[in-house]
Amino acid sequence: MHRLLERRTLSDITGQEYDVEAVCDLGYARYEHGYPQDLLATVLDEARALARTEWEAQSADRYLGLRHLRAAHEAIPAVKTLLHDRDRLRTLSELAGTELEPYPITRAASHINFYRPGEVPIAHHTDGAALVELIPLHTAGTDRGGSTLIFRGSPERGRHLLEQGERLPAEDHAAVPQRMGHAVLLQGRRLLHTAQPLRDGERITLVLVMRSVTEPWKDGNSLARLLLDDPLAAVHDEWVRDQQHQAAQFRATAH
Description:
The protein contains 10 helices and 11 strands. The radius of gyration is 18 Å and the shape is globular. Helix content is 34%, strand content 25%.
C-alpha cells in the first residue's frame, strides 16, 4: 500500500460542493509510491535514448506546448509493466474511490514529459482522461523538480479568465510538489492545471493515464482533441471501437 502524504478533495480545491462531471471526489493525492527503482531507472534510460531521436521530445510546437513521448508503453516495455500492474490499479482505485483502468487509446494511455529550465513548461489545461498518475523519473536543480500548479476554482472559471486575457497568478494555485520517490494521482479532467517553470535543472515525468470503469463516458478526449496531438490514422480506429463498445454496454444496461 502506498504511504499517503497528502489528499485533497475536488470541492476543497474548486469551492464547488458537487461536480457532476467528476468520477470521484478526489482532487489529488500525493504518496510514496514504492515502485521498483530498477524498473523506473530502466524507463528513464530508455526515455532519454528515445528523446535523442524522437521529434515529439525535441519540439514543443504543438498543442499545450509540451515536449513529450506519446504511447510510452509501446516503446518501453517497463512502462507497460507498470501501466497494467494489477496491484497498482487496485491501490489507486482505492485511493480514488472508484475502479480505474488503463486508458484504451494507445497514443493517449501513457507519455513521458520533459521539462527544461526557463521554458514555459505547459499551458493551463484540463486533461482529456479522467485521472492521471504523475511519477517523476528524474529531478535536478534547486527547485527539486518543481510543482504541478492547480487553479483554485472551477476549470470553467479559470478558462473564462484566461479567455478574457487575465493572468492566473501563482497565489491562485495549489502547488503539488513533484519529488523523486513520490507520485501524484490527479483528477486532471476537472482541475485546471499547469507546471511550475524550473529555474535550473530539469524534470522528466512518467504519466500513466486512466479512466473510470463504471463511468467511462466521463471523458474529454473527443476525436478532435486527440487529433491535436496525434495523426488520424494513429487514433481513429481505436476511438471508434471504444465508442461502439460504450454504446453496446449502455444498451445492454438499459435493457
